[in-house]
């Protein structure tokens, strides 16, 4: 069991969330169109794919190199096979130093492994310092987007929260005041923190450098102010060299926000040297938690993901249901692939690949060209094997038997057109008489609950062709 | 040129007139149209639902039907062409003989607009939208044709040649309409919400009709528009390419 899956997916339109999301996704799409128009986007993507492919294909070698370089630079590397091991290692680092106050910079991996709960249980008060993440943490909520954790919330909801916290009124229109309040609260926490816990966007094997990307400055404070910096990273975040890292650091902000460079980059190579500002200790926790098992499988390329969030905004289903509907740390198309692949279908995750119309927008958008739509299709087959749906399987088997033979197909067509036609008409209680029905028998009632349906044509094309040209 | 018509199951069973108009168009453009009677379906419903073995049985029927034929195979439905071109090689990955046949067939299987524009070199085949004046129409890109086959321009080119209508730009014209085959039955509420977004954007752009090439998308959008009582017509592209403008 891992905390990666929070609940079973609940796919239903979520108008309140959708209203917020459509604005965010619309802004993203406009910027993304400009990126496509103004860069050699396809070439950038292909190079990105090559770099990530090299990293994952040579993962054990690169991880060893990374560990050696981090250690040489004075850092300590901890390897965690599971989420529980990773949490235990971070908790132990805090305990051994008597630390009870930590600041956290946004990290989906620490969400994935349930680190906040583990820290709380160990008596470590860990506060999220990314503004969106601070808001969802204070609300007892979860992030609903990889990069924009509070994208499902409105400014009004944030103002309400801050009013409850501070006892003074906030105007939802005055975002500057909201930000200023959070900054004031967080500044105290930064100054008091004994440990800073961050994720990692990329780790460069050739120099042991951790790259952290941000737009708010909270990462710089989390990695700079506390005495101890703990960086928790998935093993897949490694890249071979600086040439590759530099390219990905261009690709990530382009895909995520449509801008050619991140607002701020922190490059961390070991702890502070003598006399420098910065943490005395650097700990790098390398988390596997199912990732190695994907290497060599059809889902290996899901490890190429650089967590840009583009496939979420591009996905028409995510736009309607929001991130929480997935019930998984990772939402959107990449979550619908990564979670069942990592969980091997456990905890209801085999339902996730169904949260897609297979329109292909995700794969088209992905800056490292992960074939997400193909993987969603394959995961549906894995799911059908792992959790058989007998009636559906029997239906498709019967269908294949009939439609793999011309006679069987034509018999179905004739049935649909002639026999089922009138039958359908009788069952359809509100037949309109113009070739459309408002009601249809189950399972087609799932269609007609919200839409009219075409009645099967009494004379299919095959029959028409035979009659006229036969 | 001799052309093999792959009419596709949804056109065959739900909108056979689209098949007839495809034949009429191809013949008007000088093609001799053959219709191999053994054809059924490309197998996509099973493939996308997690039943690749069932999909293979039906896909083998496609290979058996069209394997012995020659010349281009043309379908008035991009999604099925995408299935043949893109999914068959994966479906038959462990069967080199059939994989090779599938690859060869994929190379000569075309969606109708791409075939007309790119293979026959006809960017404009005329056509007449009925009614007075210039009816504003929105074009809905079929996802698998747009992204899977890279056929964004050919349908727009053909639609641009139709008299009596003008294409209006809609926001997010490349967004999926929510049909998605079995998706429409699996997640009906989400599917309908996606249709509403599509329909609302078309109306916001001032469109009085939506045109596409996927009879599944069309049935989904028209069925939803009817249920909402919207004054919005829905057409398959080929319906507009008739020279005499009868729908």
- What kind of oligomer do you see? heterodimer
The CATH homologous superfamily of the domain at 15-153 and 194-293 in chain A corresponds to NagB/RpiA/CoA transferase-like
Shape of chain A: globular
> Structurally, how many domains make up the residues of chain B?
2
Unreliable stretches covering 5 or more consecutive residues of chain A: none
What integer is the average pLDDT of chain B?
Answer: 96
- Total helices of chain B: the number is 12
Please tell me the overall pLDDT of chain A.
93
Element layout with pairings:
The complex is a heterodimer of chains A (470) and B (247).
Chain A: H1 15-38, H2 41-57, H3 59-72, E1 76-80, H4 83-96, E2 101-104, H5 108-112, H6 115-121, E3 125-128, H7 131-138, H8 155-166, H9 175-192, E4 195-198, E5 202-204, E6 209-214, H10 218-224, E7 228-234, E8 238-239, H11 242-257, E9 264-268, E10 281-287, H12 310-314, H13 316-321, H14 332-343, H15 361-365, H16 372-386, H17 390-403, H18 406-427, E11 436-437, H19 445-448, E12 453-454, H20 461-469
Parallel strand pairs in A: 1-10, 2-3, 2-4, 4-7, 5-8, 7-10
Antiparallel strand pairs in A: 5-6, 6-9, 11-12
Helix pairs in contact in A: 1-11, 2-11, 8-9, 14-16
Chain B: E1 2-5, H1 9-14, H2 16-28, E2 32-34, H3 44-47, H4 52-66, E3 73-75, H5 78-91, H6 96-107, E4 109-111, H7 112-119, E5 135-139, H8 143-148, H9 153-160, E6 165-167, H10 183-186, H11 188-204, E7 209-212, H12 215-228, E8 233-236
Parallel strand pairs in B: 1-2, 1-3, 3-4, 5-6, 5-7, 7-8
Helix pairs in contact in B: 5-6, 7-9, 11-12
Description:
The complex is a heterodimer of chains A (470) and B (247). Chain A has 470 residues and is an alpha/beta fold. Chain A has helices at residues 15-38, 41-57, 59-72, 83-96, 108-112, 115-121, 131-138, 155-166, 175-192, 218-224, 242-257, 310-314, 316-321, 332-343, 361-365, 372-386, 390-403, 406-427, 445-448, 461-469; strands at 76-80, 101-104, 125-128, 195-198, 202-204, 209-214, 228-234, 238-239, 264-268, 281-287, 436-437, 453-454. Among the domains of chain A are: 15-153 and 194-293, Rossmann fold, CATH 3.40.50; 393-469, no CATH class. In chain A, strands 1-10-7-4-2-3 form a six-stranded parallel sheet, sandwiched between helices. A four-stranded mixed sheet of chain A has the order 8-5-6-9. A two-stranded antiparallel sheet of chain A has the order 11-12. In chain A, helix 8 (155-166) crosses helix 9 (175-192). Chain B has 247 residues and is of the alpha/beta class. Chain B folds into two domains: 2-119, no CATH class; 135-240, Rossmann fold, CATH 3.40.50. Chain B is globular.
């Amino acid at each position: 069991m891992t905390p990666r899956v929070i609940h079973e997916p609940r796919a239903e339109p979520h108008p309140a969330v959708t209203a917020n999301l459509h604005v965010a996704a619309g802004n993203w799409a406009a910027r993304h169109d400009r990126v496509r128009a103004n860069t050699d986007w396809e070439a950038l993507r292909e190079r990105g794919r090559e770099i990530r492919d090299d990293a994952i294909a040579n993962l054990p070698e690169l991880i060893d190199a990374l560990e050696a370089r981090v250690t040489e630079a004075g850092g300590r590397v901890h390897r965690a096979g599971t989420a529980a091991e990773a949490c235990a290692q971070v908790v132990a680092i805090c305990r051994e130093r008597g630390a009870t106050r930590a600041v956290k910079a946004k990290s989906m991996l620490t969400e994935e492994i349930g680190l906040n709960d583990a820290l709380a249980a160990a008596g470590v008060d860990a506060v999220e310092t990314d503004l969106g993440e601070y808001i969802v943490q204070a609300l007892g909520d979860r992030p609903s987007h990889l990069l924009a954790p509070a994208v499902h919330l409105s400014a009004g909801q944030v103002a309400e929260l801050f009013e409850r916290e501070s006892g003074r009124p906030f105007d939802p229109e005055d975002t500057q005041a909201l930000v200023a309040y959070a900054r004031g609260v967080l500044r105290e926490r930064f100054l008091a923190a004994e440990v800073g816990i961050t994720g990692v966007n990329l780790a460069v094997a050739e120099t042991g450098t951790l790259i952290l990307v941000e737009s708010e400055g909270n990462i710089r404070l989390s990695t700079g102010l506390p005495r101890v910096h703990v960086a928790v990273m998935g093993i897949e975040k490694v890249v071979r060299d600086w040439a590759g890292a530099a390219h990905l650091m261009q690709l990530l902000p382009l895909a995520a926000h449509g801008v050619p460079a991140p607002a701020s980059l922190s490059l961390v190579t070991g702890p502070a040297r003598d006399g420098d500002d910065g943490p005395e200790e650097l700990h790098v926790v390398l988390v596997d938690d199912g990732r190695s098992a994907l290497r060599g499988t059809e889902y290996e390329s899901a490890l190429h993901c650089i967590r840009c969030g583009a496939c979420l905004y591009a996905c028409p289903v995510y736009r309607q249901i929001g991130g929480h509907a997935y019930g998984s740390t990772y939402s959107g198309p990449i979550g619908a692939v990564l979670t069942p692949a990592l969980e091997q279908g456990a905890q209801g995750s085999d339902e996730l690949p169904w949260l897609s119309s297979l329109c292909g927008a995700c794969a088209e958008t992905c800056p490292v060209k992960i074939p997400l739509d193909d993987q969603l299709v394959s995961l549906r087959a894995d799911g059908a094997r792992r959790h058989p749906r007998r009636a559906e399987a029997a239906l498709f088997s019967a269908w294949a038997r009939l439609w793999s033979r011309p006679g069987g197909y034509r018999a179905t067509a004739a049935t649909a057109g002639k026999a089922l036609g009138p039958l359908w008409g009788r069952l359809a209680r509100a037949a309109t008489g113009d070739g459309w029905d408002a009601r249809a028998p189950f399972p087609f009632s799932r269609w007609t609950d919200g839409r009219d349906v075409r009645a099967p044509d009494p004379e299919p094309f095959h029959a028409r062709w035979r009659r006229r040209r036969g | 040129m001799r052309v093999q018509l792959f009419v596709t199951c949804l056109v065959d069973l739900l909108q056979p007139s689209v098949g007839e108009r495809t034949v009429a168009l191809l013949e008007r453009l000088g093609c001799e149209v053959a219709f191999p009677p053994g054809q059924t379906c490309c197998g996509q419903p099973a493939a996308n639902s997690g039943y690749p073995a069932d999909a293979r049985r039906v896909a083998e029927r496609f290979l058996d039907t069209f394997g012995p034929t020659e010349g281009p195979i043309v379908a008035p439905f991009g999604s099925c062409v995408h299935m043949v071109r893109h999914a068959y090689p994966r479906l038959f990955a462990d069967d080199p003989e059939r994989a090779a046949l599938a690859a060869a067939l994929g190379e000569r299987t075309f969606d109708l607009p791409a075939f007309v524009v790119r293979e026959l070199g006809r960017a404009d085949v005329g056509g007449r939208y009925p009614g007075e004046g210039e009816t504003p129409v929105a074009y809905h890109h079929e996802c698998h044709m747009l992204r899977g086959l890279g056929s964004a321009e050919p349908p727009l080119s053909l639609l641009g040649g139709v008299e009596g209508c003008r294409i209006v730009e809609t926001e997010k014209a490349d967004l999926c309409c929510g049909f998605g085959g079995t998706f429409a039955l699996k997640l009906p509420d989400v599917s309908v919400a996606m249709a509403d977004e599509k329909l609302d954007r078309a109306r916001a752009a001032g469109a009085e009709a939506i045109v596409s090439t996927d009879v599944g998308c069309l049935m989904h959008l028209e069925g939803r528009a009817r249920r909402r009582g919207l004054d919005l017509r829905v057409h398959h592209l080929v319906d507009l390419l008739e020279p005499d403008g009868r729908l």
